[in-house]
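Our example copied in:
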Amino acid sequence: MNNKIKTLLTHNTEEVIIKTDLEKKLNSGKKLRIKLGCDPSRPDLHLGHSIVLRKLKEFQDLGHQVVFIIGDYTGMIGDPSGKSKTRPALSSEEVKKNAESYFEQVGKILDVKKTEIRYNSEWFAKLNFEDILKLLSKFTVARILERDDFSKRLRSGIDIAASEIMYPVMQAYDSIMIEADVEIGGTDQKFNMLAGRDLQRKMNMPEQNVLTCPLLVGLDGKEKMSKSLDNYISITEKPNSMFGKIMSISDEMIFYYFKLLTNISENELQQIKIDLKDPLKNPRDLKVKLAKNIIEIYHNKKSAEKAKEEFNKIFRDKQKPSDIESCKLQATSYKLVNLLVETKLSGSTSDARRLVQQGGVKIDDVVQKDFDENIKVKNGMIVQIGKRRFVKIIIDK
């Protein structure tokens, strides 16, 4: 048990506040309430979330009560942590729709039968304005504006919405309502989680311990993995897509992805570090191993092997995918940018123009150079973006 607690407090952990106190609680045999909150700003959780979810699983395996909070109220604000500008507000309908699949996704890592899943609308929907004023009186504007992201925006003259200032207050109140003993989050959540400790102390409750986990760099190799930056891999992503995205990461990210996202032993991890420095070893082989390892966690071994074969078919053998997604269209002409949007290969006409200008768009293997060209769609036509995204046109008669 002591070894498991030591691993819990050190493996893929950045900081524990207060470590000696939490270690004492863990050794006491008391069943602790371990909190993680997640806002449904998009309908899927990604591999960055898996780091804290896997840490939650470690607590769960030791017999503690995991409380997963779906922030359907905080999600309407959007967590401003690390953001250089105010997030676009989501409607309650958008948040509710995005939250629907979270239960299933969390179940890929946690034992949902042993997980307490809560929505913070349970308590925020019941507060009246007097309650909100009392809650806000527990905080000072100066303290909240100490947050690194807020202070940077103030110095740069960038607006901070009043609703954003409410975010750490609301996250702190979540800890009050579920009586959290421990809160887990990424390093960017430290301020918000410490606000929970402050509020618990002011309301004469035991202060939660805080455990921060490292942030995962996204596919762009620069920013943290984020749904809003679209540099993420969903934990429910199809094996072929998951494999292709993992193969696209830079060589510098291989070790950290193995460390943060897989179950390999410390000895294997050290061997990977050695292999990455060996000029005779090809980093591509390590990426294949990484991709298969991660797919086995969220799907199965058979899916991982099939995804590898499919990847080789497309990238090594220059063949089309075995299973191309189809899109029904009317038998008519479309301007190229509109065709890309209609087939959902692009999210907007401006993005479609960029893809065409970069030479990344093909129709039946022919590179398209004019984004304003009218394309006569045909049954079975293959529209391709880059090396991995294909759509087959089916004429809707």
User: Anything to note?
Assistant: The chain has a mean pLDDT of 86. The radius of gyration is 24 Å.
